[in-house]
Amino acid sequence: MSGAVMDSRVLAERTRRRQKREAFVTHACLILGVLIFAFPIYLTLIGSTHDVNTIGRGEVPLLPGGEAVANYAQAWGTGGGRYMGVPAGTMLMNSLLMALAIAIGKIAISLISAYAVVFFRFPGRMLAFWLIFITLMLPVEVRIIPTFQVMVDLKLINTMGGLVVPLIASATATLLFRQFFLTIPDEYVEAAKIDGAGPLRFFWDVVLPLSRTNIAALFVILFIYGWNQYLWPLLVVNDRSLETIVVGLTKMIGGGDAQNEWNVIMATAVFALLPPVAVVVLMQRWFVKGLTETEK
Predict the structure, then answer these.
(1) Which sequence spans correspond to the domains of the chain?
(2) What's this model's pTM, rounded to 2 decimal places?
(3) Which of 116, 168, 223, 254 is least enclosed, having the fewest CB within 10 Å?
């Protein structure tokens, strides 16, 4: 009997040691991954606090310098790089307006489209849905030339509308909302009809509250999608007062190191990181809940 007890204790001890080793390896891999991804951001943050000569010599210290206030003030107020004159504040505002308009527009159109496909019966309903779904198979590059021509015909070149309108339709969001709406019990629809609620009342009082976590998760994804747009803003906007910060950063970098004010460029890059990071941090709980919640 005592031998069996000893064997169980030895087995338990071995299990604990194995679990500790596995936990150590797991945490070591996570820490290594964080360091790999975070180190370039750390270098950018540190580089934005030094003068241009220090970085120009290829010396990027690992500790902060004393030029942070001057660098960030120049980046925010006047800009830098090859093309002086577009402040980071202006580019940030343009990017923020574009990203918010794209995210809100995509969610609004996708909600209405999915609601119509699921809760209404009309000829061509599924044909309309599959036509929307097929656009997922077409990469942006395939559609960019005809889309640009449409913007030219509508005289939306060099306008905020030209930046936003072609990007506010989302087949992915429509598909996701449709799949969620299909899980709403039919009893909710019948109860709404008995109470005399029309389609708009049912949409506003029942469907939208049930969809709030999905909307929050999609907002985070779509905001970052709009913020990171590069190719379309580069094509449709020549007016520098409408330049987005992603495009502006690339234009700040010259052909040779001597032309680059790397301290100001890095300060601008830090500004460009802040809004998407803030959105993810502030909406993290809703974002995770919207992706993982299964019971509505």
Answers:
(1) 2-77, 88-292
(2) 0.85
(3) 254
